[in-house]
């Protein structure tokens, strides 16, 4: 059915001076729970940042560097809405300006860099590039995060590989047959053809498998949805990549012969796998994963069961991707195959490359650098 | 009260070729207990050394490198007053010359480098520079280490930061309010002004707090001295830096209104915090810490209690300094603020820089290098 | 008796571009048990390889890199005699060509590198260099591995040092007195002179000690052989190095006065210590060690006892060699002594250097590189 492509790419691009991610865009930085009552230090797109919530509940992101003696501000604590350095008590405000320090006049203290942030959809989002260009309207709408018709649960992994290897992974679910043989994998996945297309600003890869036995994870989901778990089902996977680095995957099974993806809610268990990959370094990223579902939305125990199941599955991905990264590091100039099943990842990477090139062109045109002068 | 200084310094100097420590001077190398019956390998000022005690009880410091096959001599054992290599039995004498080896004539074996050592004041001291210039008279006198009127207890930490960050730390006790909130910190510290002055060959920073409540550590000390622990006290901290890298801090509390620092011994609990920082590499050092006290000197249990309390406190410093070092490494060119509270550290570093410059000038004048030719 | 040589060598050669091992030769890669039903990933002579047994029981060695997306093939599994990649199911054959992949025509897939292998003498052997030149006849004959008159037991250690330091170690057993004082070491070893000679393609170092008390390991062996363990014995050690990196050591004790090495089997416990050092990197190797013996060959419990004893002894070597390597890394230009006891290692290294030079000369003459073009 499919033919092997002759196209190829090298890994050498990874080591170029231009970082392999756009910066004038919104990335998931953390969840509100991670900054509950205390600051959080996290490196994002190569920048060490500290996140905290001030007295009025507003979230701020700053360089994680105290202007006094260079200690990480994230070791400190919140007092009167300011972030107090844990070394000598310098109190830093949301705007990167020192608001006080015992026995000191702080008016002349140099400001530290701030990063625009938005709190929305259950996440804190950060804009690591040019603060002037930050635009909340550029944050994609996430229907499932706001509607009562959806339930959501998820987690966070630190993964020691280029975030684009995770995008490749999520845009080619063929790997489920091999990496997740005991949960969501089944032979029919890699026997079913995939189609990849561009849909607006999304890259979409889809695969449909009709009249098959549901694998263990989906049998669990069918039971959770109050449906029989041993009947034949129609299964679907529709992977949607969008910039800068999210892959939302519509997945589900419907009792066979009811229309599959288009079946009535009463005949199916369907959900959206949520994946936000936030680069940390060129060879590591923060992986925010989860599942938004439209069945049994009030069942908190089911949310926990699904989270636990997903956590195991994504742990399997993490393991193989980290070893893939290590192997690619050892063979930096080796060309890889680009098969039809790889088209989703290839097109997603091309979209990322175009975004980076556009940013570089803007910078060149403006004759300025993205980072503020110090 | 105080004003923010505009002066600044960069961290880039740390990476220069000239090492950031003087070498023609005495550093604490180890304690006698560490070489009790066995050799000790330790890197000091970038040099890997082995310390051992020979048959007559004399301590020697040598390069930690067996001239036969390069094994570390510190893996060996002491026999007949020589240090025997644990690999093939080469026996090394205190003077860096091989004294024997089974089946070998050793007269022609090349010598290895020796380092001058002194055992005094409860420590082994080493001179890592030009052995010809080593002068025991240059070792500072330590009154508390020889007098029966004092008791001493202490410990050793390996700290992964530039030894000068520890000097900064000890010459600005403002940090106690933040880093040691549960033991010796109290709000009054960073509210009291500090004064920094040069006193002979010492940099002295002092702070006095009158009529305050003693913090937990000092309440413990007051009880140890047989004094009430809930009365108001006058508290003092007088930090004395001297070359190459010691900070001795006179600390204490007196029942309020009795003259504070000058109060009669019966009305106060006072002691000297002892800190010797011996560089290992440019980003790590050996931290010999302790406390010498003039109250309840026969109370060995109190010595242990104080040692345990100090150990916890200095563990808190170690944690923050190591993270500060990591942050400075990430921002090598960032300028730091130099406030009035930093004056003690700034002047101490200046004294160190002058000592290094003087050594360099001597070397240039003599047209020779410090390390012996091989 | 012996005199100290003035000759010397530097460690700097270790860091040259030419790798310090010949490649057109057979190295022990693994044991059959290590590839029982599953693939094994192992780096040998700088090459990452995967070893597996196909449907007909033939062993193959391939580059450990899936041509599809670069995952290590060693993470996969064996199915229908092919090595199936654990990421997306590419099935790789023994010949480095893809034999199948779900939904793909694989005829045009690029092959990956294969390495010649032989299974013989209880080991899998690999030829890491020019596959065209691989010749099974070049594998040395190992009598003890094929004869029923011998029993064999052994193990494998990963050692973080240049494999040549292990050769030095094994060609100079003087170290037993110091490193293995509690098992096979005894003072008489370093008091007995050694003789080193070339015997065909072997470097041979021998030492004989007559009328001594057997050390603990040999007392155990004497009991295993049904002989008294407290009588005086004649002991011998004959170390034989051969290319590329094996040291076989004839060792044993005979009841004193019966001819020593030449005594009748009924009067002695003798065996061959087997050591194959397979380079991993320039500073690490795989150490296959064992003992082949001609006494009590049917006693499996004795085989286990000896293996346990050897494992402890070689663990002591491993510890000191790793620290020696670390020390040599710190002093890359330091000259070492070459004494008479070092002659075995020195001559063995010279033989290795000649083999490397001969390979380089062949390559230069042929105007080609050893690795196949990609």
Automatic annotation (TrEMBL), chains A, B, C:
Origin: domain of life: Bacteria
The keyword Disulfide bond is assigned to this record: no
PROSITE patterns (alphabetical): RIESKE, RING_HYDROXYL_ALPHA
InterPro entries: ARHD_Rieske_2Fe_2S (IPR015881), Cholesterol_7-desaturase (IPR050584), Rieske_2Fe-2S (IPR017941), Rieske_2Fe-2S_sf (IPR036922), VanA_C_cat (IPR044043)
Start and end residues of each Rieske domain: 26-126
SUPFAM superfamilies in alphabetical order: Bet v1-like (SSF55961), ISP domain (SSF50022)
The keyword Protease is assigned to this record: no
Gene3D superfamilies, per the entry: Naphthalene 1,2-dioxygenase Alpha Subunit, Chain A, domain 1, Rieske [2Fe-2S] iron-sulphur domain
Keywords: 2Fe-2S, Iron, Iron-sulfur, Metal-binding, Oxidoreductase
Name recorded for this polypeptide: (2Fe-2S)-binding protein
Organism: Blastomonas aquatica
């Amino acid at each position: 059915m499919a033919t092997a492509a002759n196209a190829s790419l090298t890994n050498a691009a990874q080591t170029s001076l231009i970082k392999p991610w756009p910066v004038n865009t919104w990335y998931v930085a953390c969840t509100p729970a991670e900054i509950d009552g205390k600051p959080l230090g996290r490196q994002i797109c190569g920048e060490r940042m500290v996140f905290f919530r001030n007295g009025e509940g507003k979230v701020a992101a700053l360089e994680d560097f105290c202007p006094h003696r260079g200690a990480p501000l994230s070791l400190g604590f919140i007092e009167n809405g300011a972030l107090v350095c844990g070394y000598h008590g310098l109190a830093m405000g949301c705007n990167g300006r020192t608001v006080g320090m015992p026995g000191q006049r702080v008016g002349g203290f140099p400001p530290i860099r701030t990063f625009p942030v938005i709190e929305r959809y259950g996440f804190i989002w950060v804009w690591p590039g040019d603060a002037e260009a930050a635009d909340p309207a550029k944050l994609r709408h996430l229907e499932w995060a706001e509607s009562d018709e959806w339930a959501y649960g998820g987690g966070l992994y630190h993964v020691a590989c280029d975030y684009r290897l995770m995008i490749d992974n999520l845009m080619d679910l063929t790997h489920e047959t091999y990496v997740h043989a005991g949960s969501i994998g089944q032979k029919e996945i890699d026997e079913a053809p995939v189609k990849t297309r561009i849909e607006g600003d999304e890259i979409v890869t889809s695969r449909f498998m009709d009249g098959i036995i549901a694998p263990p994870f989906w049998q669990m989901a069918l039971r959770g949805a109050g449906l029989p778990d041993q009947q034949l089902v129609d299964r679907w996977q529709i992977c949607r990549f969008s910039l800068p680095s999210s892959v939302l995957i519509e997945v589900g099974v419907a009792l066979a012969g009811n229309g599959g993806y288009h079946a009535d809610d009463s005949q199916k268990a369907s959900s959206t796998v949520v994946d936000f990959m936030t680069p940390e370094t060129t060879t590591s990223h923060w992986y925010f994963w989860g599942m938004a579902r439209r069945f049994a939305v009030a069942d908190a125990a089911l949310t926990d069961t699904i989270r636990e199941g997903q956590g195991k599955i994504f742990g399997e991905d993490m393991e193989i991707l980290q070893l893939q990264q290590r192997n690619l590091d050892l063979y930096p100039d080796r060309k890889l195959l680009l098969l039809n099943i790889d088209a989703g990842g290839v097109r997603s990477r091309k979209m990322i490359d175009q975004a980076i090139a556009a940013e570089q062109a803007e910078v060149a045109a403006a004759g300025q650098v993205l980072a503020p002068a110090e």
